[in-house]
Amino acid sequence: MNKIPTAQRGMTFIGFIFILAFLLVLVYIGFKLVPHYINYYSVRTSMASVAEESKGQPMTVGIARVRLVQKLDINFINNIKPEHIKMSRAPTGGLLMTVDYEVRESMVGNLDAVMRFKHSVTLSNSR
Fold it and tell me: CA-to-CA distance for 91 and 65, rounded, in angstroms?
C-alpha cells in the first residue's frame, strides 16, 4: 500500500532555541524590575501605617515625615530620600503626604529602565 506523506508536526530545534531565548529575556527583565515594584508596595504599606497612626493622635508635618522615614528604614527601602516626601494641605482637611520618586535600573549596556512611582495618603488628624 502507498502511504500518503503527512505534514510534519512539532517544533524544530532552531524554533525551540528562539522561544527559549525570548523566555530567558523576559525572566531577566523580571529579575531586574520586580524588586522595585515590591519596594513600591512596601512604601504604600508604610504610608498607610502612618495614616492609620494619625487617626489616633495629632501629627505635625515633622512627626509624620520622621515616622515615614523610620518605617522605610525598617523595611530597608533605600531609594526614597527625604526630598521625595511632599506634605501639603488636603482639600478635605488634614495633611496630604505624597511620595514621588523614580528608579533607574541598568538593563544592558547603555539601555536603562526608568520606573516612576507616586502615591498619596491623607493624614486625618494632623496640624
Answer: 20
Domain boundaries, the chain: 16-123
Mean pLDDT by 10 residues, the chain (127 residues): 70 91 96 94 93 83 90 89 88 87 93 95 76
Report the distance separating Cα 54 and Cα 93, nearest Å: 13
Which residues make beta-bridge pairs with 100?
118
User: C-alpha grid cell for residue 78?
Assistant: 533605600
Going along the chain, which residue ranges are E strands?
A: 85-89, 95-108, 111-123
C-beta of residue 58 within 8 angstroms of C-beta of residue 127:
yes
Q: Is 117 helix (H, G, I), strand (E, B) or coil?
A: strand
User: Which amino acid is present at 94?
Assistant: G
CB 54 within 8 Å of CB 116: no
**Count of other CB atoms within 10 angstroms of residue 37:** 12
The pLDDT score that the predictor gives to residue 127 is 59
